[in-house]
Specification:
By secondary structure, the protein is of the alpha+beta class. It is about 25% helix and about 30% strand.
């Protein structure tokens, strides 16, 4: 005897599939956190592309995405976003208290939109900056590790979404 599928069979299968998805969905899954205004540029720019041609992007609004590799432990005022190539990151920095990125964001995916800045420091400014970073991270600082001026890229965000 051959059995044919009926609309009721399809409905029952659809309900069973939906229940299975609900049953096996991660109980710890949470909605994304939005800081500021959610990014709305239609296309993300790869961090590697920004590093390869910074002059093309400095002063412009960009959207980037990646994994959060570090967060300011003191005030949550910055995070380092890992790029599409190993060991490439871009700093995302807000004025203290404007947005507070939680330490729990480490390891999560994020999308960030904001203006790209290029910051240059002389050797003394670079030494003080590096010392401050070491203090925030709770690691030892050797002043001899700073051998000259420092220039780095950072995004001043208008918004971020942490998944």
């Amino acid at each position: 005897m051959t059995r044919t599928a009926t609309p009721r069979t399809f409905r029952t299968a659809a309900i069973a599939a939906a229940m299975a998805v609900a049953l096996f969905a991660s109980p710890g899954a949470r909605a994304a956190q939005v800081f500021g205004t959610a990014p709305d540029l239609p296309v993300s720019t790869a961090v590697s592309e920004i590093h390869a041609r910074p002059a093309d992007f400095v002063g412009k609004t960009v959207r980037v995405q990646g994994t959060i590799v570090d967060v300011c432990a003191a005030r949550g005022c910055w995070m380092e976003l890992g790029g599409d190539k190993p060991f490439q990151t871009i700093r995302v920095k807000v004025q203290d208290g404007v947005m507070v990125f939680p330490l729990s964001a480490r390891g999560k995916k994020a999308q960030v939109q904001g203006k790209l800045e290029s910051l240059s420091m002389n050797a003394e400014e670079a030494r003080r900056f590096s010392e401050h970073q070491a203090l925030e991270k709770g690691v030892a600082f050797d002043p001899k590790s700073v051998t000259g001026p420092l220039t780095f890229l950072q995004i001043k965000p208008t918004g971020a979404v942490v998944e």
